# Entry
Amino acid sequence: MNLLPFQPAHSLTALPATQRWLIDGLWADQAVGIVGGEPKCCKSFLVLDMAVAVASKTPCLRRFAVQQPGRVLLYAAEDALHVVRTRLEGICRIAGVALCDLDIQVITADSLRLDVAEHQALLTATVERLQPRLLVLDPFVRLHRIDENASAEVAPLLAFLRQLQRRYGLSVVVAHHAKKGGSNLRGGQALRGSSEFHAWGDSNLYLRRHGDDISLAIEHRAAASQGGISLTLNADGDDVALAVVDRMEKTVELSPISTGNKIQATLATAGAPISLTDLRSACGIRKATLLQCLSTLMGEGRVLKSSAGYSLS
# Structure
């Protein structure tokens, strides 16, 4: 009689801690999972930041170190290719790397349907040829025509992605929308459609927006979860990227006069034009408040803006 393969538990392969992560604390190595959130929660910016980090071995969000760098294969189903390039270039400049130096391969097909056998075969052949460390699919809703509420229809698509992960030893990140009115639910429970999505993920990231602030919750199957990470979408000229907001930056709002004085004092000590991102970090002021005060100061002729940044007039 044929038997299934087996071995004693104590002889199973064990990996050092540094080899257990693709991105330290953020995404496990060879993990499948969801980056979830309601529309306009910056899911696409987060998965693109992950792509740049893995391809360049620079910290994701300038905070989470990459342990297993390598090639990235990306399919952005909702954005035009020139938009994808612009966003990637902006993240790269903020990360201090050049997009032309990174091995990020973008699938340019008009459509990719995971519920179509021919498309599954094409994606499998592409993964086999390119051998990426990370596969990014954004968003799930554009990758099929199934009923997302039906477990019997969702499960085979997720199983196909799991098979890719196991066969080729890669990580798979899928951006997925949260359901309407799910802001009071736990991240996994707020995902749109079947509970299969939440159960499938080895690493899941959940984004929520509160005004200008974005919160990130991290969930792992085999490691401690973490919540309450504050993010903001920073712009440095035309370059836009997510950034972690340190707790020490969450100060009480100052009066407009005090805020203006703080901005001018920071610019006076800088000695050179300073970018919006660096100015916000130095002042510890909310982005909306900072922009409003800068507009007032420039209108009064106290502050100048140039291609190099902001400076005193």
